[in-house]
Amino acid sequence: MLTSIRSTITFDKKNLDDKTLLNLYKNMLRPRLIEEKMLILLRQGKISKWFSGIGQEAISVGVTMALNKEEYMLPMHRNLGIFTTREIPLHRLFSQWQGKANGFTKGRDRSFHFGTQEYNIVGMISHLGPQLGVADGIALASLLKNKQQVTAVFTGEGGTSEGDFHEALNVASVWQLPVLFCVENNGYGLSTPTNEQYRCKDIADRGKGYGMESFVVDGNNIVEVYTKIKKLAQSIRKRPRPILVEFKTFRMRGHEEASGTKYVPKELMQSWAKKDPVENFQAYLKNEKILTEKQEVAIKEAIIHEINENLQIAFDEKPIESNVTTELNDVYKPFEYKEVSPKSKTEELRLIDAISLGLKQSMQQHKDLVIMGQDIAEYGGVFKITDGFVKAFGKERVRNTPICESAIVEAGMGLSIAGMKAVVEMQFADFVTSGFNPVVNYLAKSHYRWNQQADVVLRMPCGGGVAAGPFHSQTNEAWFTKTPGLKVVYPAFPYDAKGLLATAINDPNPVLFFEHKALYRSIRQDVPTDYYTLPFGKASLLKEGNDVTIVTYGAGVHWALETLDNNSDINADLIDLRTLQPLDTEAIYKSVRKTGKTIILQEDSMFGGIASDISALIMEHCFESLDAPVKRVASLETPIPFINQLEEQYMAKGRFEEALKALLAY
Ligand SMILES: Cc1ncc(C[n+]2csc(CCOP(=O)(O)OP(=O)(O)O)c2C)c(N)n1
Ligand SMILES: [Mg+2]
C-alpha cells in the first residue's frame, strides 16, 4: 500500500511563484487550525460528531485551488479544506455544525451534509456513493451547454466498493463527461484496511476497465496535487472527458473522533506522521526562505483570530426555533401551478399515445429538459413511448443509458442542480429498486435539507394483468407515497395522463409518474392534441351516487367501472384519485360524509398500501358519518405470480364485487 509514496516529501515548485506557494500553505493551515479547535470543542460537548481530515488537507486545498470558483465540487466528510478554500465565512460553517440558522441546513442535517449554490459546492449524503453520479449530471449539463467546466467529485477508497462508483465512472466514460473523480485513499474505511476493501494494486488501475485515463498522486504533497490537477483540469476543459485520480494519503485520526485508532498499527501511523502535508510544506517554505519565522507566527495568529471571532458569532447566534409549519413547508419547493387549458380539437388516443404526445410537447416547452433511460433513443423504449424522439430532439436530449438505475437517477439530480430538468424512464417500475437509494434519500430530501430542488420525473411503467411475473408486474407506489419529499402521480385515463405529465415536468419537485402497462393499449379516450396541464391533488369524481363511496386509482378505476356497469342498481360515488401525493382528502371526506360507507380498492397487496392510510384518515376525520367499517380491497399478500390463473387469483379485482355488495348489505 505504501510503495508508491516516498518516505519524505520532495517538493518541486516548478514555475509556481512565491505568492501561490504561500497561498497553498495558508489554505492548508486554515482547516488544520480549525480542526484543532473543533477537537477541543468536541471534548467540551459544544459540537456533535467530527470527521477529521487532518493529514489529508493537501488534497482538498490543492484540488480546490486548481479549479475555477464556478466549477462544482462535491466533497466528502473529510474535505473541510474545500469549504474553507472556497472562502465560506467561517461563522457560517460553525453555525452549520451547531445546527443554527446561519448554517446551510436550518439545523436539519449535520456536519458536511449540505450544499451551497453560492459556492458551487454540493455536499455528500451519508451513503457516500450517490454523489459520484450526481457529479455526472452536473458535468452533463456543463457539456450540453458547452461551458468548458470541470466537475470534481470526491470519494474515499471505501466508497469505491459501492455500486454507485462503478456506475458513475462507467456512465461518465460512455458519455465522455468532464468529471474529475478524486479518490482519497487514506488506508482505512472506518476500521477496514484497504486489503479487506479491494484487491487491485491501485484503485487508479480501475480507470483502464472503464476506458478512462487515471493517475496516482501523492496526496500529501500539496505542490504535486495542485500542479497535477491544474494541468488535468485545463486539459478536461479543452477536451471533455472523465479522469480518475487516486490520491495516496492517510487518515491520521479515527473514523470519527469517538471511534479512535486502536486497530491501526503504530508503525504505520508513525511513518505517515512524518509525511504530514502541512508541516512538511512549512519546513520546505522556510528552507527555501519563502516563509520566515515571523510570517509564520503572523499567519497563524491571524487565522486563530479569525477562528475565534467567527466562533463567537456562531455561539452568539440564538438556537433554532422549532416550528412545525416551517418544517412542513420546506419539504417541497413551492410550485405555483399554472393552468394551461387545451384549445384544440380532440383525437381518440390510447393511454400510451397520450403519454408519448405529452412527453413530446414538454420537450418542446422546456429546452432544458433531458430524457434518459435504457433503450429510449433510436429503439424508442420498450413500450415505444419515445419512438421518433431522437429525430425530433437529438441524441443529446434523448439519451440511451447503460443499465445503471442509480447513476441515472443521480445524474438527473445533477442536471437539476445545474438548473436543467430530467425525465428518467424506468424500463419497468420494478427496476427502480436498483436506483432506490438516490430516489428516497437524495431526491426526496434535497429541498428539505439544503433548499435544493430535485427537478426530476421518474416514469414508472407498472402494474399486473400482463402475465409477466414477480419482477415485471409490480405496482410499487407505496414505497414512495410514504416518503416525504416525493410526489406520486397515478393516472387511469389518457386525458389525465397527458395533462398530469405536463404538470409533473413543470413541477420542480421529484415526481414518480406511474403508467399502468395493462392500460397502455387498452384504454382509449378523446384527448386534446395540444399542450395542457392538470393540477395535482385533485381527484376526479367519475360517478355519483348516495349509497357508497369507492376510492381507487390506476387499474382499480377500470375494475370499479366494470363492476358498476354490471350492477346498475348500485349508486356509488366513484373517486379516481389521480395523484396519491398530494392526496385529495377533501374529495374523499366530502363523499364519505354523504354516503356513510366507503370501500377502497388498490392493486397492490394490502399491508402498508395507501388504502390503509386512506382508511385511517377516514376513521379520524369522518367517524361520525360512517354507517359501516371502512373496507379495503387489495391483492394477496404474496409476490405477484406469472401464470394467468394465479395472477387472476392474486389480483384485487376478483374480490371487489363481493366486498362491495357485502359493504352495501352491512
Ligand atoms: C451506504 C453506507 N454504508 C456504510 C456507511 C457507514 N460509513 C460511513 S463512512 C464509512 C467509511 C468510508 O470509508 P472511505 O470511503 O474510505 O472514506 P474515509 O472515511 O476513509 O474518508 C462507512 C463504512 C455509510 N455511511 N453508508
Ligand atoms: Mg478511507
Question: What does this entry look like structurally?
Answer:
It is a single chain. The protein is an alpha/beta fold and 666 residues long. The chain has 24 helices and 21 strands. The strands form 5 sheets. Strands 10-9-11-12-14-13-19 form a 7-stranded mixed β-sheet, with helices on both faces. A 5-stranded parallel β-sheet has the order 1-2-3-7-6, with helices on both faces. Helix 1 (18-43) runs antiparallel to helix 10 (277-287) and helix 1 (18-43) crosses helix 11 (293-316). It is elongated, with a radius of gyration of 28 Å. Mean pLDDT is 97; it is low at 1-7. It binds thiamine diphosphate and magnesium ion (MG).
Principal-axis shape equals: elongated
| Assembly of the depicted chains | single chain
Structural class: alpha/beta
> Largest sheet, order of strands side by side?
10-9-11-12-14-13-19
Task: Detail the poorly predicted runs.
Answer: 1-7
| Overall radius of gyration | 28 Å
Number of H/I helices: 24
